[in-house]
Amino acid sequence: MIALLLALGSSLAYGCADFLGGLGARKAHVLRTVMVAAPASLAVELLLWPVLGASFSPAALGWGAASGVASAAAFALLYKTLAIGPMNVLSPVTALVSAALPVAVGLLQGEHLGMAGLLGLPLALVAVVLVSAGHGTGSSRPSRTALLLALGAGAAIALQLIFLHQAPSDSGVAPLITSRAVSSAVTLTAAGLLHRRLGPERPAYALSATAGVLDSLANLLFLLAARSGDLTVVAVITALYPAGTVLLARSVLAERIHKGQVVGLGAAAVAVSLLALT
């Protein structure tokens, strides 16, 4: 139950972070947005160090660095995807990919589920699909480029979470600090090399920094959830984050929520209840 609640909190934080990051990427080049978000996320991890502790073992550093590279790619691909839009379709596509890969890894590593879990896990995956279902009247269809970016973002997110999960359970926030330090370095280096292509627009500092802080909180909650529960369950619950993005897109940007998405939200609630019984 603790792992489930932590995963739900991670899902909510990811959904809010993605929405704000997508808005920020609409106001300036995506790298300018990530240049603010990644260091802000690192600052949160450093503040948590004295509270939660950190053990920088070779394994923690290695898996954290791998997660950081994937995180940098996830930041850029996801924010660019959401900037192109529509958010209420592309965000769930990334979520489905980001859920499927960790589930496969968890099952290959020997994780087992009870009967309730065997029912709840596929229902949760179906829920992620339903949240992205249907275009309906007045909804724009995503371009092929946007869909490819969404698939790439989902894979990057999945690798980021898988690598964090592989880090030693007694390493505290060391993998998160390492991950964010590497992702910040990669982002700033890329921005320096491509500075002539970034355009004159200034980033939305408040939106970008808040997205980074929320993303850091989401990563922490995921790591704690994965350490106290199965990756197969935690990853799928975390992947329900598009619900938050979709609802924010509806309330702030007036993007439509279709009947399939409403059914998907209901299926997600049932799936969470089933997984809570495992």
Describe this structure in words.
This protein is mostly helical. 79% of the residues lie in helices and 0% in strands. It contains eleven helices and no strands. The chain has helices at residues 2-27, 30-52, 58-84, 87-108, 115-131, 144-166, 174-193, 205-228, 231-238, 242-253, 259-276. Helix 1 (2-27) packs antiparallel against helix 2 (30-52) and helix 4 (87-108) packs antiparallel against helix 9. The model is unreliable at 134-138 (pLDDT under 50).
Question: Which tags fit this structure?
Answer:
278 residues; mainly alpha; 79% helix; globular
Mean pLDDT: 81
How far apart the termini lie comes to 9 Å
- The proportion of residues in beta strands is under 5%
Q: What would you report as the Rg, rounded to the nearest angstrom?
A: 18 Å
Sketch the topology as an H/E string, one letter per element: HHHHHHHHHHH
Helix count equals 11
User: What is the count of β-strands?
Assistant: 0
